Amino acid sequence: MAGHSKWANIKHKKAATDAKRGKVWSKLSKAIMVAAKAGGGDLDTNIRLRTLVADARAVSMPKDNIARAIKKGSGELEGADAFEEIVYEGYGAGGVAVMCDILTDNRNRTAPELRKIFEKHDGNLGATGCVAWMFDRRGLFVIAKDTVDEEQLIDIALTAGAEDIKTGDQEYEVICDSDIFSDVRQALEDAEITCLSAEVTRIPQNTVELDADTARQVLALMDALDDHDDVQNVSANFDIPEEAMSS
Are 176 and 184 in contact (CB under 8 A)? Predict the structure, then answer.
């Protein structure tokens, strides 16, 4: 899972930059509208919406933007487009499995655009189900090791229902069932534990080890997919060497 946490950290840094912030807010607005449309605008009863609002606050999305997206989704305001949720699957360089969670109002536009991105980075868009079996949907929290005591983290996370805590060179990874993601997130926040990233994502069952050159190709693909307006989340099963991170 080392490759996954590295990508999670890259996404976190991207979301924190001013240049990317507008794009991140736009994606979150769409997701909030869809969640509010599906489950209503009450944060207490709509767990998915509550999680997205927490994500929006974490990247300093204005309260007015959040409130407007909720109202559009719940029907209080006009302007909510009919977004469709789709999962696209494919392969990157080195046979890496890639999954993209999509929100689009025009799949006839999105599919060829994603196919072009895959092909440009030595990959290919595959058929539905071609790689989904390689992933489990889980909540994932990445926490810097120098910000929390390990025993404290283990106690808080497991008490909240987390399945596992993995220790990397510089980070801890807390993994939980996606259904209790908000509970674990709240427990970490109550304990004032800061996460480098927190998301419900697809965690690979096994990873593909890549050399530095292939890793750079895969990271370029992930970056290009993540930059697409319709892509909400990208997951892959790669493990990459440190030298690929420093280039």
Answer: yes
Q: What are phi and psi of 180, to 5 degrees?
A: -115, 20
Nearest CA to 207 out of 168, 150, 176, 233 is that of 168
Give the chain's radius of gyration (CA, Å): 18
What pLDDT digit, counting tens, does each position of 177-217 carry?
999 998 999 999 999 998 888 888 898 988 888 898 998 89
What amino acid is encoded at 106 in this protein?
A: N
Taking the C-alpha atoms of residue 176 and residue 35, their distance in angstroms, rounded to an integer, is 21
Handedness of CA 97, 101, 106, 109 (dihedral sign): negative
Which residue do the tokens 């997205």 mark? 52
- The pLDDT tens digits for 67-78 are 999 999 988 887
What residues contact 213, with CB distance under 8 A and at least 6 apart? none
How far apart are the C-alpha atoms of 3 and 211, rounded to whole Å? 12
d(CA 31, CA 48): 10
Secondary structure element (H or E) that encloses residue 199, with its range: strand 197-204
| SS3 category, 99 | strand
Residue 30 identity = K
Measure CA of the first residue to CA of the last residue in the chain; give whole Å.
21
C-alpha span between 204 and 145 (Å, rounded): 23
H helical segments located in 40-127: 47-58, 63-74, 107-120
The pTM (predicted TM-score) of the whole model is 0.83
